[in-house]
From TrEMBL:
Residues 1-29, 342-376 are annotated as: Disordered. Residues 1-11 have a biased composition (Basic and acidic residues). Transmembrane segments: none annotated. It comes from Streptomyces adustus. GO terms for molecular function: ATP binding; ATP hydrolysis activity. Keywords: ATP-binding, Nucleotide-binding, Transport. This is ATP-binding cassette domain-containing protein.
Amino acid sequence: MRPHAGDDAHTRATTPTAVRTGPDDARTAAAPPVYAISTRGLVKSYAGPDGSTTHAVRGLDLDVLRGETYAFLGPNGAGKSTTLALLCALARPTAGQATVAGADVLSRPDRVRRLVGMLFQHSALDPDLTAEQNLYIHARLYGLRRRHARVRVTEMLEAVGLGDRRRFPVRTLSGGMRRRLELARGLLHAPEVLFLDEPTTGLDPHARVQVWEYLRVLRDRHGSTLFVTTHYLEEAEHCDRLGILDHGRLVAQGTPHALKAAIGADRVLLRTGDDAAARQVVGRTAPSGLPVNLDSEGVSLRVPHGSAWIPRLCAALEAHGIAVHAASATPPTLDDVFFHHTGRSIHAPGPHRTPGDPTPADPAPGAGTAATEEAP
């Protein structure tokens, strides 16, 4: 089933093109969108040794525009890496359809593999070879002629800032340098789509920032579509759009801004001299029906225009003799978005829900996503 028409309608709208229908009549018509990735009802299941079935990907419907940076956001075990394997034609889907760079993953898997690049979650470089040798071997495996391969190796080493390290063995390079080298390797054959599975896992914050800077530059220079899986919220902010994957299902997608705006409410947090009593007062003062939570941080609730509610709540608490030590209102974050759609934090090891929070809908396999979108 396709996502709701309103979910991605704005994203799928493309730049108008002029159409001349008469000497004095000029109208604009929307050119059809060009998708780098398109899936319908994609499913991947595995049979367990005890006869059970594990559903890693459940009815995935997805469209990624050419030249877009799209991220899968989800915790470990959500199905992100399995989805990448399906889209790279490294695994065969149990059901459904998928096309990548215009090639069908089922009928033309060899073409799909030639048109995509892949940066694996764990390093696939040979540590005993030099940076230059690693890239040259990869270029030759992809069919580049010797002279062209040498030119591309030099170009890509310079592009990722490793030109002066070309003859250094990979084992002598830092973690950030190795990741940039793998990025260069993935782009050697000028793929139409570059898949990146947790591209900055294990890197320090500075190296992670560097990798994303190179990703943006290389995407703009080569025009490749970037498809990224990550569980780092700050990395998802770099992407044009993102999808939230939970237990193999795409439960929401949109731009980071639109997904956060869809929640609509700020988080108001109050620290008081008596949080248990404060929760009761806040519950009576706040708009009816809003859940008020109490945890180690204090008393919290989600309310539109949170900063405007702080003086009113503080006045009510002081009228009941409850001292307010701190009060803050923060706009929604991507972790809030993830919690809103899945019922748990992206960093939580398992299902968790704060008492009073609504239960997110659990769509059936193949169901449309609860997405929100805005014009690019």
